[in-house]
UniProtKB/TrEMBL annotation:
It comes from Streptomyces liangshanensis. The lineage of its organism: Bacteria, Bacillati, Actinomycetota, Actinomycetes, Kitasatosporales. This is ABC transporter ATP-binding protein. It comes from the Bacteria. Keywords: ATP-binding, Nucleotide-binding, Transport. PANTHER family: AMINO ACID ABC TRANSPORTER ATP-BINDING PROTEIN (PTHR45772:SF7), CONSERVED COMPONENT OF ABC TRANSPORTER FOR NATURAL AMINO ACIDS-RELATED (PTHR45772). Residues 21-267 form the ABC transporter domain.
Amino acid sequence: MTTDTTTKDTAPATAPGDVVLDARGVTMRFGGLTAVRSVDLTVNKGEIVGLIGPNGAGKTTFFNCLTGLYIPTEGEVRYKGTVLPSKSFKVTAAGIARTFQNIRLFGNMTVLENVLVGRHTRTKEGLWSALLRGPGFHRAEAASKARAMELLEFIGLEAKAEHLARNLPYGEQRKLEIARALASEPGLLLLDEPTAGMNPQETRTTEELVFAIRDMGIAVLVIEHDMRFIFNLCDRVAVLVQGEKLVEGDSETVQGDERVVAAYLGEPFEGAPGDEEAAEVAAAEAGAARSGAAGSGAAAGSAGTGSAENAGTTGDASKEND
Ligand SMILES: Nc1ncnc2c1ncn2[C@@H]1O[C@H](COP(=O)(O)OP(=O)(O)OP(=O)(O)O)[C@@H](O)[C@H]1O
Ligand SMILES: [Mg+2]
């Protein structure tokens, strides 16, 4: 079902060492609902990859599968060649950091403290060192603080280091989340709607910020509904529709694909995810209507049984795709 319309057919194959993220056949089911269905996605060194799709397409769920928040029902995720551990703090330690669609900062902590929290996977000082507060601990603390301040400068929030996070305007809270994610020194950064709620000026600055992050050697996978942002920024864009990857390619390819436009507008199109199930439902309903019209006894009963079975199966399938 997945259609790869990448135009760079002639581009040299990526060397194995250049693949930062390799997700294969990732499926995530919640009871009867398949939120992500057999999705393959790679992110290579130096790339900014976009993940777009209508509301409820499964984008955040896919991110959760990449970061150990969810264990995929099927499939495998590798980071730099190694299968991901199943706990999110271990995933962060391995090198994948993220921001959240719904901002998750410690509101009553300062801006600086929030960034320091992000550094904990990188500090080697253990419990005893922290409790005894020996010279090793103080050195490590000073180094962490210096790095956190550097990151605040990088995102333009150094002047607000001592402000409480909850007092920052919304756009700055989103940037602070990025700084906190960067504090874990990741090799891959996942951004879930980084410009949601931002004004055009803030969005523009965030765009520059993401380019700068890429230039620091960090690969980026970004979910966003702002298409201008996505198409300006990304080397490659994958489109999720009803949990399935519909198209993947460069900005031009994706923008020019009629199925992407149709999926966003909610128009039916040939080969759409869930299309076969929808056709089966329609056929079953038509069958049921016909047998209802025939109206009588045993014959209608047996026809009715057949279509009821159909309707039963397809009914579940269509629920999956809601
Ligand atoms: N923990 C969960 N339990 C049950 N269903 C879930 C869970 N998380 C997500 N879903 C469902 O999975 C589907 C995909 O949701 P998801 O949040 O991944 O979409 P999305 O593409 O991120 O949408 P949006 O653009 O609105 O953020 C939705 O139908 C959602 O209701
Ligand atoms: Mg989402």
